[in-house]
């Protein structure tokens, strides 16, 4: 079974840092674009950052200069380094990836992780 598993969330004080990880597992042939999204209860899910298989990155305006997205293709893992955290960064963070499977390498699927809670206290 192909899946994404996030880790690294938790409670941190304002101004602190956290590092999220998203590991892809299962019979994955290729990983294309990957990204981090976040959602506050009652609001729409919003893009935090994305990264292509070649390493090109894109960031939401609210996190530019504070968050850094990266990936290790050999480990099939994506990271989000979050610095200078603010209370408004509090949300459930989800990872997302476009993948193809070994059993059907020409078909691409969008996967979501289960989410990890990030809470920033004042």
Structure characterization notes:
The chain is mostly beta strands. It has no helices and eleven strands. It has strands at 3-7, 10-13, 18-25, 28-39, 46-51, 57-59, 67-72, 77-82, 91-101, 104-112, 116-121. Strands 2, 4, 5, 6, 9, 10 and 11 form a seven-stranded mixed β-sheet that branches. Strands 1-3-8-7 form a four-stranded antiparallel β-sheet, with no helix packed on it. A hairpin with a 6-residue loop joins strand 4 and strand 5 (46-51). The chain is elongated.
SSE topology sketch:
Blueprint: E1 3-7, E2 10-13, E3 18-25, E4 28-39, E5 46-51, E6 57-59, E7 67-72, E8 77-82, E9 91-101, E10 104-112, E11 116-121
Parallel strand pairs: 2-11
Antiparallel strand pairs: 1-3, 3-8, 4-5, 4-9, 5-6, 7-8, 9-10, 9-11
Q: How many individual helices?
A: 0
Whole-angstrom Rg: 14 Å
Q: Give the number of DSSP strands.
A: 11
Q: Main β-sheet: number of strands, strand sense, barrel status? A: 7 strands, mixed
The low-confidence runs, each spanning 5 or more residues with pLDDT under 50, are none
Structural class: mainly beta
The separation of the N and C termini measures 40 Å
| Beta-strand percentage range | over 45%
Shape: elongated
Helix content: under 10%
Mean pLDDT: 96
The ordered H/E elements are EEEEEEEEEEE
Concise overview:
With 122 residues, the chain is mainly beta.
């Amino acid at each position: 079974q192909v899946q994404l598993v996030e880790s690294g969330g938790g409670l941190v004080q304002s101004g602190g840092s956290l590092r999220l990880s998203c590991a892809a597992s299962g019979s994955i042939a290729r990983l294309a674009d990957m990204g981090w999204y976040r959602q506050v209860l009652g609001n729409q899910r919003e893009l935090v950052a994305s990264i292509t298989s070649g390493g090109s990155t894109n960031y939401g305006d609210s996190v530019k200069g504070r968050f850094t997205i990266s990936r290790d293709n050999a480990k099939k893992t994506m990271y989000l380094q979050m610095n200078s955290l603010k209370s408004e960064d509090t949300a459930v963070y989800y990872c997302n990836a476009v993948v193809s499977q070994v059993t059907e390498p020409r078909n691409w699927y969008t996967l979501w992780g289960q989410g990890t809670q990030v809470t920033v206290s004042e």
